[in-house]
Amino acid sequence: MQSKLLLWYDQEGRTLPWRVRPEDRAAGIKADPYAVWLSEIMLQQTTVPHAKPYWRKFLEAYPTVTELANADRDQVLAMWAGLGYYARARNLHKCAGVIRDDYAGEFPQSEAELLKLPGIGPYTAATLAAICFDEATNIVDGNVERVISRIFRIDAPLPKARPEYRCMAATLAPKKRPGDYGQALMDLGATLCTPRNPKCDLCPWQNDCAAHKGNCETDYPKKIKKVKLPVRYGAAFVLISDEHVMLQRRPDKGLLGGMMGFPGTDWSSELSEPLNAAPIPRNWEKCEGEVKHVFTHFELRLDVYRAEIANRDAEGIWAPLNSIKSFALPTVMTKVLSLAQK
Ligand code: SF4
């Protein structure tokens, strides 16, 4: 099975800007751990087409991990704006600082050492160690779980049975070409063994796949049914003065920690007396409609209030509207601004 998959990867694997193709690897070109790490962190919650321009932008601005570590954190967050899940950007910067200070600017070369770095979990450590340092690790992400569940027809549902999926994946992981094998498996999941309509006719493992033999590919992976997300409510206040808006930095801890945002209420299951949370007493006008935004654990609905003042004397960070992009507003806050400007 390993040879079949690797042969398929040699011919059909995706060409990605951070990836060293097998023929280049054979010619002695090595993967750059910094470039691969950046891509892996970005791809955690983002699609390849969306991540590509950000990856290029980061490498242009910070060509090495030390330059990223030396950069101002706010600039890094601003460059990340639009990719979502901002804890990743904060950890990215923190991790770069640890590599600069504790590892002389070089990535550690083993899965065990990589796991000690902030923001690097088991999947990323296994991937970096295999792709960049040829360590025979067991790379398992969502795509791989889907392939493995079908190959073995694993009936135990995700996410609870994740360790079982890892064990089964480990029975296939090879000692040779571990990086190419891991990338091949991820490519198989991303391009052929897709959630709906898998292209089994093109699959190098069609004769080894239990779900294909049983004609029940899309019954796998089994999942525990998702519960409906709870809804939280809140209000945000957009104070405008002379083509500027007033922003506040959110506390480091918690959701959107360290990001810029508009002042507002807490987000809770009920919204009462929102105007008590207004940054200054004013004749606040409630904007028509509401902002809806889905976070991992809840759906947020925000009422938006706006007011204009003549002088920028309220306490906050006054951002010029014509350069608001440089203030790293998270997506939910750009939605707030759009509603206030309608
Ligand atoms: S045969 Fe089909 S279901 Fe099985 S691994 Fe290949 S693409 Fe996935």
Describe the structure concisely for a colleague.
The chain has 342 residues and is an alpha+beta fold. It has helices at 2-12, 22-26, 33-43, 48-61, 65-70, 73-80, 87-102, 111-114, 122-133, 142-152, 162-172, 178-192, 210-213, 331-341; strands at residues 231-241, 244-249, 260-261, 285-286, 291-294, 299-308, 317-320.
Give keywords:
342 residues, alpha+beta, Endonuclease III, domain 1, Nucleoside Triphosphate Pyrophosphohydrolase, 2 domains, seven-stranded mixed beta sheet, 14 helices, binds iron/sulfur cluster
Structural class: alpha+beta
Taking all residues together, what is the mean pLDDT? 93
- Main sheet properties: 7 strands, mixed
Number of helices: 14
Helical amount: 40-55%
Domain module count: 2
Per DSSP E runs of 2 or more residues, the count of β-strands stands at 7
Cα distance spanning the termini: 57 Å
Write the element-wise H/E pattern from the N-terminal end onward.
Answer: HHHHHHHHHHHHHEEEEEEEH
Radius of gyration: 24 Å
Bound molecules: iron/sulfur cluster
* CATH homologous superfamily label of the largest domain: Hypothetical protein, domain 2
Low-confidence stretches: none
Identify the quaternary structure here.
Answer: single chain
User: So what's the overall shape?
Assistant: globular
CATH class bucket of the largest domain: Mainly Alpha
**CATH fold description of the largest domain:** Endonuclease III, domain 1
